[in-house]
Amino acid sequence: MSQSPTRTDVVFVEDKRGLAAAVQAIGQAPVVGFDTEFVGESTYEPQLCLLQVSTPERILLIDPLSRIDLREFWLMLTAPGREVVSFCAREELLFCLRYAARLPGSLFDPQVAAGMVGFGYPLSHTNFVRRVLNIDLEPSETYTDWLRRPLSEQQLRYAAADVRHLLAAHRALIDRAERMGRLGWITSECERLVELVTESQREKRWWRLPGISRLDGRTLAVLRELWRWRENRARAANLPPRRVMADALLVQIARRSPRDIGGLVALRGMARGHLRNAGAEIIAAVRAGLSALEEELPALVAAVRHDAPAPQVAILGQLLTIFVKTIAFELQVDASLLAATSDLQEVVRWHLGSVDDGPPQVLTGWRGEILEPVLVELLEGKRSVRVGDVTSPSPICIDVCD
User: Fold this and answer.
1) 10-13 and 59-62: which strand pairing?
2) 76-to-34, 166, 340, 358 alpha-carbon distances in Å
3) Could you identify which of 83, 84, 286, 327 might form a hypothetical disulfide with 104, taking C-beta atoms 3.0 to 4.6 angstroms apart as the criterion?
4) Could you read off the pLDDT of 201-238 as tens digits, one per residue?
5) CATH architecture for residues 206-297
6) Which of 3.90.198.10, 3.40.50.1980, 3.30.420.10, 3.40.30.10 is the CATH number of 2-202?
7) pTM as predicted
8) Which CATH number is 305-400's, of 2.60.40.10, 2.60.270.50, 3.90.1150.10, 1.10.150.80?
């Protein structure tokens, strides 16, 4: 465990003794800041290069490439009762799932919180620190090689900066949120982020492939088998799945469903040597999909299956978008956190009776408190929209109809 000569409160951890002290320091802190440096361009899963943790007393830079056993670290970080403050936290949550098999007991994402109390969303870390704490940071090490060892003093300094201000920003945002009555909103949104990350690991991710909205059940079954083949081959080779086979080619093979190698290699994009060598495996996946039982055929969920919206859905969705931007400005909440265009089109479909699943998610929780009464009244003709002061940053007025 060595002190960095750059800042006395920064500790670089690369051995068992240092890790034991780091775990103890984390265990004594009910709130910690957390960030990671990783490389994800050339491997199946991102390769973790550095762990950064801030406590009230010190900043810990833990080297996962030093071959120390990090199980105790991950368990302590994610222990129930500990709040983890992590900026743009999705990747950090995925690392927690991967190495601790659980998520932090409580998450606070300052990027999300900033957007809900008037600072804007999504902010870069540099702009976030400047707006919330009025502190200017040095330029970040965006293109540095985090796999290189030893890490330079400049790399360590930049890594420490990523977590140095998280706890101060956490306190500032909590105070501002309490004054504005938004703390419950932030808590709810951070919990939703955790749920979305968890669901992303459970969902059938092949549903998200582009260009599949019009495929029938049999073709989708073939696509599902091809996607599983690609995932298994990418995992075995430790490559990103798209390096094994591009999404567009995967969908094209499913559409054509070739029964033999000749039909497969005739497809555009199959000239690459490693794909030709995998021809038998690909044909086996196609045949598995074609032979699936009728009751095993997949069907896309409605949210993925939507074609272009009907004209009235598109027009009314645009009207609701104008309203949401207006109310977001008045409440100092970033409009992108309130609702996306697709969310508002779903509200219109629900109002028209085209959706049978109950109120859309955007009309529930803290968003529903803000949006549900007025959106429904707007669609029922009980409210109107007009132009007010054209010189105002928010020139649209929402009036109650007589």
Assistant:
1) parallel
2) 12, 19, 37, 40
3) 84
4) 876 678 888 888 788 999 999 999 999 999 999 999 99
5) Orthogonal Bundle (1.10)
6) 3.30.420.10
7) 0.87
8) 1.10.150.80
